[in-house]
Design brief:
Protein name: NACHT, LRR and PYD domains-containing protein 3-like
Radius of gyration: 12 Å
Structural class: alpha/beta
Largest sheet: 5 strands, parallel
Distance between the termini: 26 Å
Organism: Phallusia mammillata
Pfam family, one: LRR_6
CATH class: Alpha Beta
InterPro entries: Leu-rich_rpt, LRR_dom_sf
Length: about 100
């Protein structure tokens, strides 16, 4: 699947966990404003770093990402071409962890 856009849907952490199992089939995943917290982002990041083929886009904008999830996302370098974290309240320290990735804040 080239693109899955679930923006504005109440995906939540359980939905993110379910989506994580199918990440290898999705090139672009947009989860803008989907009520996902660090727990759900952690599930997605854990799966993304294990992908055989990289994703073109993972958009988690306007979700509550959290410190631990940012650390997990930083391990996805080379697996996610573009990461969007707009309006996610990412600190300067967290941005530093993601400095080697193409991230849009």
């Amino acid at each position: 699947m080239d693109l899955l856009n679930l923006s504005g849907n109440k995906v939540g952490n359980e939905g993110a966990k379910s989506l994580a199992t199918s990440l290898d089939k999705i090139k672009k995943l947009i989860l803008l404003m989907c009520n996902i917290t660090g727990q759900g982002v952690l599930e997605l990041a854990t799966k993304a770093k294990e992908l055989e083929h990289k994703m073109d886009l993972l958009d988690l904008s306007e979700n509550e990402v959290g410190e631990e999830a940012v650390q997990a996302l930083s391990l996805c370098k080379g697996k996610v071409d573009k990461l969007k974290l707009q309006f996610c309240e990412i600190s300067v320290h967290q941005k530093e962890q993601l400095k080697d990735m193409d991230v849009e804040y």
